[in-house]
Specification:
39% of the residues lie in helices and 21% in strands. It is built from five helices and nine strands, in the order αββββαβαβαβββα. With 183 residues, the protein is an alpha+beta fold. The chain folds into two domains: 30 residues; 152 residues, Glutaredoxin, CATH 3.40.30.10. It starts with a helix and ends with a helix. The chain has a seven-stranded mixed beta sheet, covered by helices on one side. It has a two-stranded antiparallel sheet with strand order 1-8. A hairpin with a 4-residue loop joins strand 2 and strand 3.
């Protein structure tokens, strides 16, 4: 009986603590951290900079590599999202993390993108550049996706794994960004 009472009391205290922490609403718990500035090229050789974020209300940034089967498998789903979100001024960018390592990797990435019917922009980062060394090199699992606002801030934590399986999380973060833009 004493053990049950302790468990119930602990649960009540935890609930009270959580209620106190969330008094600003669930959205106040979502962190924002700056996405690193970058100047890279896409898989076609066109320069892309982090200024691209300011052109959209939000951007979904999906990191993938040539050897990641689940990354490649989700590309048609990401393409569908890209097409759906364009009307809402939401962009989607892929980052082929190993596509900048040499011509063979770039050619492989291009072939993958073509086979998967991808039309959204894909960055081919320089492995000797700061963006790669200071950010991409720390990504340990693929695919990994970030939601970035128009000011270049990552909203919330990284989303690891298939995006379509986590659409509730993606949509909640997009809704938060869009709501802030409306105020």
């Amino acid at each position: 009986m004493k053990r049950i009472l302790i468990v119930l009391l602990s649960a009540a205290l935890a609930a009270a603590a959580l209620a106190g922490c969330s008094s600003g609403g669930e959205d106040s718990l979502v962190s924002k951290t700056p996405f690193p500035e970058f100047s890279e090229v896409d898989t076609e050789g066109n320069e892309i900079t982090s200024d691209i974020f300011s052109d959209y209300d939000a951007t979904i940034v999906n990191f993938w590599n040539n050897g990641c089967g689940s990354c490649i498998a989700e590309m048609p789903e990401l393409e569908e999202l890209y097409q759906e979100f364009q009307a809402q001024n939401i962009n989607l960018i892929g980052v082929g993390t190993d596509s900048g390592e040499g011509q063979e990797q770039l050619d492989t990435a291009r072939e993958i993108l073509k086979e998967q019917g991808v039309t959204y922009l894909n960055i081919s980062p320089d492995p000797e550049g700061d963006f790669y060394k200071d950010f991409i090199a720390d990504i340990s699992t693929y695919p990994t996706t970030y939601i970035v606002d128009s000011e270049g801030n990552i909203v919330g934590a990284d989303i690891v794994g298939n995006v379509k399986n986590q659409l509730d999380t993606v949509q909640a973060r997009l809704d938060l960004i869009l709501a802030e833009n409306d105020t």
